[in-house]
Amino acid sequence: MDRLAEAIEQRCERGETGSAVRLVERGAVELARCWKEAILQRVIDRAVGRHLGARRSGYQGIGRSPWRCPRCGPRLGRELRRNGGYRRQPLVAEGRITLRIPQLVCRGCDKSVPFSHPLLPRRKRLWLDLDQQVALLYLEGCSYRAGRRLIERKCQSTVCLMSLWRSFQATGKARHAPPGRPPGRYLALDEVHHRVRGQPRWFLSVRAQDAGGGKHWVGSVLSSDRSQDAWETALVELGISRYNPPFAVISDGDQAIESAVAVTLPIRRREW
Ligand SMILES: [Zn+2]
User: Fold this and answer.
1) Residue 98: which residues within 8 A CB-CB, separation 6 or more?
2) Centre of ligand 1 from the C-alpha of residue 68, in Å
3) Alpha-carbon gap, residue 94 to 37, rounded angstroms
4) Quick one: which of 172, 153, 162, 157 has its CA closest to 124?
5) C-alpha of residue 108 to centroid of ligand 1, in Å
6) Which residues lie below 8 Å from residue 41, measured CB to CB, with a gap of 6+?
7) pTM for the whole structure
8) Could you tell me the distance, in angstroms and rounded to a whole number, from the CA of residue 122 to the centre of ligand 1?
9) Minimal CB count within 10 Å: which of 69, 205, 244, 271?
């Protein structure tokens, strides 16, 4: 603390007030990051301790645990044991944190039992505090790409566009989601091959017809490949989520398109 205060003093003496303010700010952000890391780790450890007992205490939890064995179903605390753990590094508003997630094992069948907690939804890379910020940015009119730049600057870390989109989708399920376009009848997805300076390129294109019969191009995204990833990025960039379900998605049955649609438009009816 004294060394930091000294560094701040030195900057002020040199007339670098802006730099001194940034030092204070950086310290505050780091403090908040560490605090979130510590408190979430405590919550995880306590959840396991409550149901399985403290390590090597001989205590065997009573009652039902919140975790289920994929083979035997819901488990009592005493039907589970610890088996090490793994690291998870979600991104919070102040940067990346590292959490030790316990690995649980079913005593009945020796199968591993996934640990879950309401504060740590599975497969989520952005932590819940960022969900709110992503939704706010979007409602302020920020595109996903601009939102990503702002979030990346704030968290000092790179963020995948898909994670941002998933985060917004999770928030947008609420009743006050922004209004979309008129209901679509179908979206047609196709790719057009091109050569740009001798290199193969694809236009990943989407056409739409709405319930009123109106047809239009949603748009095309130029891509160096036509993989599932490329299609997912294209569907996000073209704002496909604005089109109201239910509608049919038409494609030539390409596996990459099918999988990308299943990820980005999981509730839509599909026709090939
Ligand atoms: Zn089991």
Assistant:
1) 37, 87, 88, 89
2) 8
3) 10
4) 162
5) 5
6) 99, 100
7) 0.59
8) 20
9) 271
Per-domain residue ranges of the chain? 2-113, 128-172, 184-271
**Ion ligand 1: residues, Cβ under 5 Å:** 69, 71-72, 106, 108-109, 111
Residue 142 is encoded by which pair of tokens?
């920020």
159-168, pLDDT tens digit by residue?
Answer: 877 777 777 7
- Centre of ligand 1 from the C-alpha of residue 237, in Å: 43
Residue 170 token pair: 């999770």
Structure token pair of residue 145:
């790409």
Q: Which residue has the tokens 């709405």?
A: 210
Express each pLDDT in 118-130 by its tens digit: 998 877 788 888 8
Q: Do β-strands 184-196 and 248-250 pair in parallel, antiparallel, or remain unpaired?
A: parallel
234 vs 254: CA distance, rounded Å: 15
